[in-house]
Design brief:
3 helices, globular, Rossmann fold, alpha/beta, 111 residues, 6-stranded mixed sheet
Length: 111
């Protein structure tokens, strides 16, 4: 079963997709929510677990994603506000093999 990653500009508690995360977890998948706004806030298992400054590097966020979700199959739901945040756009380019919703089309970031 693929894991679920949600990239959003909304707080976990205010994001309606938290119910999708809970359903994925009940079905045996791992789920993670990352809010890209004034800070980069990582939430999972119904609560906030860590935060980074807004200027965090996309590679640092990727390490956090891999620590929690691993390297297996992943579905990524992207909120429209994430196209304005450098760490969010870089992260999307680094997530090889993921299935994206609201994918922006191409990566201008080079590894």
């Amino acid at each position: 079963m693929p894991n679920l990653l949600i990239l959003s500009n909304k707080l976990y508690q205010a994001d309606f997709r938290k119910y999708l995360m809970r359903a994925a977890e009940r079905a045996g998948a791992r789920a993670m929510h990352i809010q890209f706004w004034e800070q980069v806030v990582i939430s999972r298992e119904a609560g906030e677990h860590s935060a980074f400054p807004n200027d965090v590097d996309g590679h640092t966020v990727l390490r956090a994603v891999r620590d929690i979700l691993g390297n297996g199959p992943m579905i990524v739901l992207i909120g429209l506000g994430c196209y304005e945040r450098p760490a969010a756009t870089v992260l999307q380019c680094l997530l090889e093999g993921a299935v994206f919703a609201y994918w922006r089309g191409s990566c201008t970031y080079t590894r």
